[in-house]
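for the writeup, i need someone to sanity check this before i put it in the appendix. the sequnce is what the collaborator sent (i think, or maybe the updated version? ugh). structure was predicted straight from it, no edits. if anything looks off just tell me and ill rerun, i have time this weekend
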Amino acid sequence: MGWFQTVYKRIVPFQGRNLAQEVDVTDGGKPYLKLRVETVEFISHVDDADFIPPQDAVGPLGDRISGVSLPPINMSSLPRWPASLREQHFTVTVEIVVGKDGHVVSAHAVSGPPEGYKTCENAVRKWVFKPYLVLDKPVEVEQKVACSNN
């Protein structure tokens, strides 16, 4: 799973605000998006209301995002592996969706020993995460988690 990093460069003051003239976004360390500001022009009248989205605005990310990794805040449920797996070392990877309230709404194992899928899915469904906010509103998060028997 990749991770997004945003770096703001060449930050300059402009009309009472800060402006990054270069923005680099990477995913897993690889370039994803580069923004460059070539021209900055004076705005004759600055109204703070112009910078506030309308109440009915839908964010650019929608109601579900991926590319972030939320650490669980409660992992009280750990997998109880079947006897056939207890002496082995392995990892089961599960794709989950964390709901707006921080609870797991779906879990689907995608790799590891198939006989461990249900055990890991059932444990992960009980984990709780801190809700993720975009523009101060909670969104669902798609991510992968791992259950290991080491």
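The chain has two domains: 1-39, 65-74+83-149. The mean pLDDT is 86.
thx in advance!!
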